[in-house]
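Troubleshooting log. The previous structure file for this entry was overwritten by mistake, so regenerating from the original sequence record. Sequence copied from the archived sheet and checked twice against the printout by T.R.
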Amino acid sequence: MMKRRQFISLLGGATVGWPLAVRAQQTGRTVRVGMLETVSTALKPNDLAAFQQGLRSLGYIEGQNLRIEYRSADGRPERFPELAQELVGLNVDVITTRGTPAAFAARNATSTIPIVMAAIGEPLLIVASLARPVGNITGLSAFVTDLMAKRVELLRDMVPGLSRVGALLNMSNASQPSQWTEVDNTARVIGIQSQLFDVRKAADLAPAFENASRQQIDAVVVGIDALTQENQKLIIELAVKHRLPAIYPSREFVDVGGLITYGVSYPDLYRRAATLVDRILKGTKPSDLPVEQPTKFEMVVNLKTAKALGLTVPQTLLVAADEVIE
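Regenerated output below.
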């Protein structure tokens, strides 16, 4: 089983004052929540639905006392600073973010509006302490780096004779270098070679897969970031075209034809982010809310894709999977 990083919550102690959002349920005022997202809702509808359901269960109803301002970078992280400033200009009560570049942009745009990281791979790039985040930001870790080792091990179990694994990562994203280190270290431990394929724009994807094929890479670990989320269908098509088994970081990839995913449940993180938003709106300082770790993980296997790749998925993996798509 994967070893999870220890997490210690330290509560109490003095805190600085915080300009609290007005309690919508008490005043009848509409709460405005800004969402700074990597891609459109069409590419990850379950996350937004989980967030909306979480807020609804806490009494926030869109069209009544809640307005969600959704802003998507559409796979281009360079847009985050502009979008973050737009949300600040709207004077939203809380901003939620997805991923490291979005969190950086929100933190740089405001020191007063509370920020909730709905999912972030490396929270310590944003906050100095998980237990005491300090300032106007808190949220949930997506445990991304820690899961890369498990993904490499799953590929070893799935692909007979695996000797070379590739990592498709956008190294311009500050959270990705540590993921590459994890892949490289794990490959060494289990006795295989690893190769980095640095992709920073959509035009890099096809050449990366062609290069992987030329180098006789046996399987690929796909990282999660705005670029890979926005281009998930293209990545899956390229993997099948080059007959490269690939493991993906979130459920959406497998739903549209990816081979296998192992990772946190992002809808669960968004549901929990709604609870953090509610607590902040009711007066809790973000600095008093420790950055939380994920508690729900899922593995989904797509047998249709396995067949297209000529793979026989081991029975042990099928039994371990949370869901098998046939």
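The radius of gyration is 20 Å. Archived copy saved in two places this time.
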